[in-house]
């Protein structure tokens, strides 16, 4: 059967590329950042993701999608993977994949949930758990570009031990304000009692609708739906609220 021609740029994204693990960094007790060398990588935008394919010696193959954690940097792609209990792929990536091992990556994928360095409006980033990963790529892209666009991050996690990129977020990028929201256990003396994201949080630590910020929300489905509804109720236009969600996938 004849196939339609695939445009060059799209064809590059659809290719599976053999990618070598060159560095691993622990981010929390259950998450690691994996840095891959990807020959011929076409580059990516902050917020995009990749497909990961693993193939066993007997030919069995499985694949998952993971957000890219890094800003564009030549042929290097970083993924932060949260280990899922009883998962098939994430425990292998977090615990077993060793330096020099190879997997296959395909991408980048996605063009809706992205931040481009030429944008100038204020940005609110709202993350639930590992939903911080693509938003961290936006923070890093902003830094790499020397942008002064004001960013505010509202980061919701269960406990202090669940925070990702702690040292990097706490080093204080100019124009980046970071607010932690704890849902189960907060540090002793923390200014806010544990609980889910609320209207007061969004009002006090986000940007008001009058400034016309773009709001990026990423996390589990229930968190994303709650946060998006909250920002709409506060007067933010729905078209300025971009969402990315994830759920159980057998990771």
TrEMBL record:
Coiled coil: none
Keywords, alphabetical: 2Fe-2S, Iron, Iron-sulfur, Metal-binding
Protein name per the record: Ferredoxin-NADP reductase
GO molecular function ontology, one term from the record: oxidoreductase activity
Cofactor: FAD
Residue intervals of the FAD-binding FR-type domain: 14-115
CDD domains in the record: FNR_iron_sulfur_binding_3
One Pfam entry name: NAD_binding_1
PANTHER family in UniProt: NADH OXIDOREDUCTASE HCR, PROTEIN RFBI
Keyword Ubl conjugation: no
């Amino acid at each position: 059967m004849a196939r339609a021609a695939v445009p060059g740029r799209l064809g590059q994204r659809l290719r599976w590329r053999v990618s070598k693990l060159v560095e691993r960094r622990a981010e929390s007790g259950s998450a690691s950042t994996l840095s891959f060398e990807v020959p011929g990588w076409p580059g990516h935008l902050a917020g995009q993701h990749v497909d990961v394919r693993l193939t066993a010696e007997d030919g069995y193959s499985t694949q998952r999608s993971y957000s890219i954690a890094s800003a564009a940097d030549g042929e290097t792609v970083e993924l932060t993977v949260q280990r899922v209990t009883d998962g098939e792929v994430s425990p292998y990536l977090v615990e077993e994949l060793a330096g020099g091992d190879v997997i296959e990556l395909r991408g980048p994928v996605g063009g809706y949930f992205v931040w481009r360095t030429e944008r100038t409006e204020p940005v609110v980033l709202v993350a639930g758990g590992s939903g911080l990963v693509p938003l961290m790529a936006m923070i890093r892209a902003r830094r790499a570009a020397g942008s002064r666009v004001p960013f505010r991050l509202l980061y919701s996690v269960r406990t202090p031990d669940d925070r990702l990129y702690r040292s990097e977020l706490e080093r204080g990028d100019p124009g980046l304000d970071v607010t932690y929201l704890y849902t189960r256990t907060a540090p002793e003396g923390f200014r806010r009692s544990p609980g889910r994201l609320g209207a007061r949080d969004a009002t006090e630590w986000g940007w008001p609708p009058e400034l016309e910020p773009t709001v990026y929300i990423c996390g589990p489905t229930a968190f994303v739906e709650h946060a998006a509804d909250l920002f709409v109720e506060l007067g933010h236009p729905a078209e300025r609220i971009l969402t990315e969600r994830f759920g159980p996938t057998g990771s």
